[in-house]
Amino acid sequence: MEALVLFGKGLFIGLAIAAPIGPMGALCIQRTLARGFWAGVAGGLGTALADLTFATGAAVGFAVFKDLVERIALPLGLIGGAFLMVLAWNGWPRGQGGEPAAARAPEARSLWRTTLVTYGLTITNPPTILLFAAIFAGLGLAQTGSGLAIVALVAGVFLGSIGWWAFLSGLVAALHHRLPPAFALWTARVSSLTMAGFGLWAFASIF
Fold this sequence. Notes:
Layout: H1 2-18, H2 23-35, H3 37-61, H4 63-71, H5 73-91, H6 108-123, H7 126-138, H8 147-176, H9 181-206
């Protein structure tokens, strides 16, 4: 019964952390519009795996890791901010006549690369790590005890996170062809500007 309750709490945490539209949400929407549903899910998978990593650390005792993260926040922030700026530059539409390039079906290698990029980007974001620590401490979930309880909790976090990304990718993919062509162009521009803005914010928050 305890494991089931913790699984439900994990689902809620994963969904609550993934749902706000930030740089990862912008990237997921951009990838879905450019490459289709599975490209969006691949990006979401990287973020969900990073959330799984954070949740596991928090569940088994985040105090030491939290202290380590605070010590290396500067290089982590620099890496994360640089990642965002590169993604913003690469994601800016450069199709002929200002139109976005035609969507291409993603290859398996491209999907895995997208997953690795979003995992690296999320894992180098100190605020996200500290957010997990705060949520787990606030809900009394740190050091949950038995192995089954930890597995149930982190599995809930992962499924809540990846469930949101699959829903968002599916929604965008379903609406894509019902929207005017300019929508994809302006969405690509807005998402690139969003990522650039978060990248600049990451740099500013460090200094």
